[in-house]
């Protein structure tokens, strides 16, 4: 791919054809990624080391932590951010390869429909991620986790595990849910903006 294509691709990703899309990029790229990258590491970075069940048996701690966290929140949210970016990136890659200018996207029906489809796909992916987050993490992190170590001890046994910084993790969970909702609202608003422009209620830039 030539440098011109790469430049067009990067400009398309950073400056979508809609005002709300540009705000979404700013919110997604700065606030959400900063929150996850900096604060997420501070809250979850040492969770596995401080997760305590049986201080005399390290294998019990590891077994229960893997049961408590089938996937770490940082990894889940990082995957969510990457996957949600794919539809928009694919569209802008297509636009760069076809030498489509940003101002032409909202003027030609095919390009507009393709772009709306990429935005709608982002909404679907965010909704799926929201549902998966509920299934994996719930809405609250309890201070005590009851771990079934029967498979490890070869008998039925429940061990109490201490979850570090559970209150901070609960706040962080709610924040990530809120970010997902805000992103979905921005995507819906972007589709509404495109519709208004196509119908002539808003002037094309």
From TrEMBL:
The keyword tRNA processing does not apply. It is a multi-pass membrane protein. This is Gap junction epsilon-1 protein. GO terms for cellular component: connexin complex. Its main location: membrane. Keywords: Cell membrane, Membrane, Transmembrane, Transmembrane helix. One of its GO terms (biological process) is cell-cell signaling. One of its GO terms (molecular function) is gap junction channel activity. InterPro entries: Connexin (IPR000500), Connexin_CCC (IPR019570), Connexin_N (IPR013092), Connexin_N_sf (IPR038359). Residues 125-194 form the Connexin cysteine-rich domain. Signal peptide: none annotated. It holds the Pfam family Connexin. It is found in: Cell membrane. The chain crosses the membrane at residues 25-44, 75-97, 109-132, 171-192.
């Amino acid at each position: 791919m030539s440098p011109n294509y790469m430049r067009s691709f990067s400009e398309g990703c950073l400056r979508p054809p809609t005002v709300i899309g540009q705000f979404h990029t700013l919110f997604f790229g700065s606030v959400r990624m900063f929150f996850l990258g900096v604060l997420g590491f501070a809250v979850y970075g040492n969770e596995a080391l401080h997760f305590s069940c049986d201080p005399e048996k390290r294998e019990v701690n590891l077994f229960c932590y893997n049961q408590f966290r089938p996937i770490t929140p940082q990894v889940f949210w990082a995957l969510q951010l990457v996957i949600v970016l794919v539809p928009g990136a694919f569209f802008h890659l297509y636009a760069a390869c076809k030498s489509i200018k940003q101002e032409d996207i909202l003027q030609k029906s095919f390009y507009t429909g393709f772009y709306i489809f990429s935005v709608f796909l982002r909404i679907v992916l965010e909704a799926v991620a929201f549902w998966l987050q509920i299934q994996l993490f719930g809405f609250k992190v309890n201070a005590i986790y009851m771990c079934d170590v029967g498979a490890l001890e070869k008998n039925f046994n429940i061990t109490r595990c201490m979850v570090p910084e559970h209150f901070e993790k609960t706040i962080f969970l709610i924040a990530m849910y809120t970010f997902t909702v805000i992103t979905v609202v921005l995507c819906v608003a972007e589709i509404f903006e495109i519709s208004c422009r196509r119908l002539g209620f808003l002037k094309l830039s």
